[in-house]
Amino acid sequence: MSAPADPPPGNTSGTLTAYLGQNLRQYGMMAALVVIVVLFQFTTGGKLLYPNNIAALIQQNAYVLILAIGMVMVIVAGHIDLSVGSVVAFLGGLCALMISDYDVPWLLAVLISIVLGGVVGCWQGFWIAYAGIPAFIVTLGGMLLFRGLAIVLVGTTVAGLPAGFNDISNGSLPSALGFLADLDGLTLLIGIVAIAGLAVSQIRARRSLLRNNLRVEPFPAFVIKLVVSAAAIAYITYLLAKSAGGTPIVLIIVALLVLLYTFIMNNTVFGRHIYAMGGNLPAAVLSGVKTKRVNFMIFVNMGLLAGVAAVVTTSRAGAAVAAAGQNFELDAIAAAFIGGTAVSGGIGKVTGAIIGAFIMGVLNMGLSIMNVDPAWQMAVKGLVLIIAVAFDILNKRRGK
């Protein structure tokens, strides 16, 4: 009798149907985003996907995308941050005052604001990581503290900010490559590079897993995911290339942050320690994870991202007001939960939070185009959040 053949390298996660069942939450949110887009495209008479509306969708929701990245890390580690909206108002006020009252060059003011965000994160991270006060209490106090400081700093609206600063959120990349028919050449090039980068990175990651005999998704699922992702990027590229400005500057900022933090969470010791702490804190401690340092760095990072969001928000408005950042923390938390981050911690992806943020953004824009009352818009978003969390809990119960 001949010897059995060697098993193929790697391990696939069963059949395509079984794999989709195991990853129902991840693919369910992607499907939900597509369904919501199609629904509003129909109910708004095709207005939702106007090229200029897509650019506006990105610019209006950039702050949620940025804050959701940090919030995923906070929630995965088993914490929460209620202060980010107030921190955005405080740092945005400081940034505007530096530019308007103290003649600080706007680029330097931006860098100082982000660094000060890190200082705020150090303040909160110290109390959480080293004093042992729950993050809920510390950040609740931070929400009141920094909102109060924002009101003290920005007694009246601080406007008259320079055009270069305002272009961070309102401007687009210059049409350096001209136009192909009516499509912006630089935007098309960025889209092509993005699709090629996605394909190369996904193929290399899959080959690496196979070489190390680690579990990979079934090949049909891999191909479908790659094709659908490439098609989505291509379509968004086409719409942006047709828009009045082309590629929004803030989209490049958000894209770089998504790539950076996806790498951190998936490929670094720091990212693995965050997942370990959220999944099983006692086991992480016994494994030698320096939990205090990790918790401290999580909140320093959240502060830095709040600084970036403050710059983006102030730039978008073209002014600083004490009321800026209202409910930003709720938007970021909702985006994380809707995007698949587990309420109990230990599970969550940056890309999932981005999908969650876009679901919230599409809901806002679609309902606004339909002239739905803002009160009902809030009610709809609250309902979506409850459904997403309930789905997560029911999915866990089913898996037991």
UniProtKB/TrEMBL annotation:
UniProt entry tagged with the keyword Transmembrane helix: yes
Transmembrane segments: 27-50, 62-94, 106-132, 144-165, 177-201, 222-241, 247-264, 294-312, 375-394
Keywords of the record: Cell inner membrane, Cell membrane, Membrane, Sugar transport, Transmembrane, Transmembrane helix, Transport
Domain of life: Bacteria
The keyword Transmembrane appears for this protein: yes
NCBIfam families found in the cross-reference section: GguB (NF040906)
Protein name: Xylose transport system permease protein XylH
